[in-house]
Write a structure and sequence with these properties.
- Belongs to the transferase hexapeptide repeat family.
- InterPro entries: Hexapeptide_acetyltransf, Trimer_LpxA-like_sf.
- Keywords: Transferase.
- GO terms for molecular function: O-acyltransferase activity; structural constituent of carboxysome shell.
- This is WcaF family extracellular polysaccharide biosynthesis acetyltransferase.
- The chain has about 220 residues and is an alpha/beta fold.
- It folds into 2 domains: about 170 residues, Hexapeptide repeat proteins (UDP N-Acetylglucosamine Acyltransferase, domain 1, 3 Solenoid); about 45 residues, no CATH class.
- About 15% of the residues lie in helices and about 30% in strands.
- The chain contains 3 helices and 22 strands.
- The chain has a 7-stranded mixed β-sheet with strand order 2-5-8-13-16-18-19.
- Strand 10 and strand 11 form a beta hairpin.
- The radius of gyration is 23 Å and the shape is globular.
Length: about 220
């Protein structure tokens, strides 16, 4: 390859040049700033530049967004410190997703066979109730299924199945993420002054006895 012949091919950033400049010099520094820790202001700035963001979204300091006009975020999403959303292509983050510290969402690739090393962008879609743990990397074209987990430092260039926990580089499935029913997790029976709590994780049964003193009629909890 010859980088002096590098080309974007048919790719366009999706916004006029003046808007890109405003974002680069004014919008992006405000979102990334550590002296402006308020999520509501960061959300307002992102929306002003074309991002679609729901309610209850928390954005920590150091967060970087390449192009806000190609970002869609649902409700009650957490984006941790120093997360980098490198969205040359559209990124969709559905509701109740947690992106932990230092997560990198990469939507850009290159054609290493072509002499001009041309850019190949592809979107990322993270479905509801997923957790991308700290320092994890998600590559272009990846879809993260509902409820999936990518553990600490995981790296994936392939889509993740729903309700599966993945780990490693490249990420591999390690176990199911079980969504237990309340009646299975807590089976409470009043016996003397004790509460017997039974926790069920997957197929293993672990019993934990928690001693709770019942207050007398003339006592109150503070």
């Amino acid at each position: 390859m010859h980088l002096d012949n590098y080309t974007l091919g048919s790719y366009t950033p999706g916004a006029p040049y003046w808007k890109q400049l405003l974002w680069h010099f004014f919008g992006s520094p405000l979102v990334e700033s550590s002296w402006l820790p308020f999520s509501k202001i960061k959300v307002w700035v992102l929306r002003s530049f074309g991002a679609s963001i729901g309610k209850g979204v928390r954005i920590k300091t150091g967060v970087r967004v390449k192009f806000p006009w190609r970002l869609t975020v649902g409700n009650f999403v957490w984006i941790g410190e120093n997360a980098w959303i490198d969205n040359l292509a559209p990124v969709v983050i559905e509701s109740h997703v947690c992106l932990s510290q230092g997560v990198y969402l990469c939507t850009g690739n290159h054609d290493w066979y072509h002499p001009d090393f041309r850019l190949i962008p592809a979107p990322i879609h993270i479905h509801e109730s997923s957790w991308i743990a700290a320092k994890s990397v998600i590559g272009p074209g990846v879809t993260v299924g509902q409820g999936a987990v990518l553990t600490l430092g995981g790296v994936t260039g392939r889509s993740l199945e729903p309700m599966i926990i993945y780990a490693g580089n490249p990420a591999q499935p390690i176990k199911n993420r079980v969504r237990a029913k309340v009646e299975d997790v807590l089976q409470i029976s009043a016996q003397d002054e004790f509460i017997h709590v039974r926790h069920v994780f997957d197929t293993d049964l672990t019993e934990v006895d928690i001693r709770v003193r019942t207050p007398k009629n003339d006592e109150q909890f503070e």
